[in-house]
Structures are given as C-alpha cells and as structure tokens.
Design goal:
mainly alpha, UDP-galactose 4-epimerase, domain 1, two-stranded parallel sheet, 5 strands, 12% strand
Length: 137
C-alpha cells in the first residue's frame, strides 16, 4: 500500500483504489518490535515453563487493529498524498478481523514500542531511500 500510494503521488493520480470495502480490520507490528520480542523471549522465557503450563505458543503483536480504509488514509497522510482513496467492493475483503491476543506475552513483561504511525513513517523513509535499488533487482 505504501508503494501504491507513493506511485500515485509521483504520477499525480487523482485517486488510489484499495481492494474490498475497506472495513476489514488488521493488526500491524513494526519489524524492530518483532525482533525485540524474539530477543525478550530468548532471554526471559523458558520453553519448559511454557509447555508445563500447556501453552503451545505466544502471540507477538500490538493488540490493536485498524480498518484497511483508515490504514490507507494514514499512509496517504504520511506520504502527503492528497488524492481520493477509493474502495473496490467487487474485490474480496478477506477475513473481517485479524487481531492477536497478546495478553500472555504482555503478562511476561513485553509490550510493543512503536506506534503504527511511527512504524509507517520509518518504513516509508526506508522505502524512499531504497526504491531505486529495489527496482533494479
């Protein structure tokens, strides 16, 4: 979506279309927070303690979600794209909501650090710095 909106801005397109109604909710986690959670678990969680409590996994996430349309609008604001965001409801929405229960890992002492807007801003900065390299490959 970052690339799509970035290219629309570069081409001065008047609108960008996202698939579906825009209503489905999704959770996003910044990659550095994922790495932090993995290191936290390696340093603080014993597998035997997890298994002895019949826990098969620990979800890593924010525990917050956002609609696809609101995500597109947030990305557009970060990129400074002023065109319209349209939804193509002839395309599938997918699962209505994908949100993890992160209470187990939060109870162990880990919580994400990067808010969605900050993560998208950092990702967009990286994207702009690397788009030409990425296109060459």
């Amino acid at each position: 979506m970052i690339r799509k909106i970035y290219e629309a801005k570069k081409k001065n397109d008047k609108s960008v279309t996202v698939w579906g109604t825009g209503n489905p909710l999704r959770e996003f986690l910044y990659v550095e927070d994922l790495a932090d959670a993995i290191i936290f678990m390696m340093e603080n969680v014993e597998a035997k303690d997890i298994y002895n409590n019949r826990i098969s996994h620990l979800n890593i996430g924010t525990g917050k979600d956002i609609s696809i349309i609101d995500l597109a609008k947030l990305i557009a604001s970060i990129i400074d794209y002023e065109g319209d965001i349209n939804c193509d409801s002839s395309k599938p929405d997918g699962t209505p909501r994908k949100l993890l229960d992160v209470s187990r890992i939060n109870n162990l002492g880990w919580k994400y650090k990067t808010e969605l807007k900050d993560g998208i801003t950092k990702t967009y900065k990286w994207f702009k710095e690397n788009i030409e390299i990425w296109r060459e490959n």
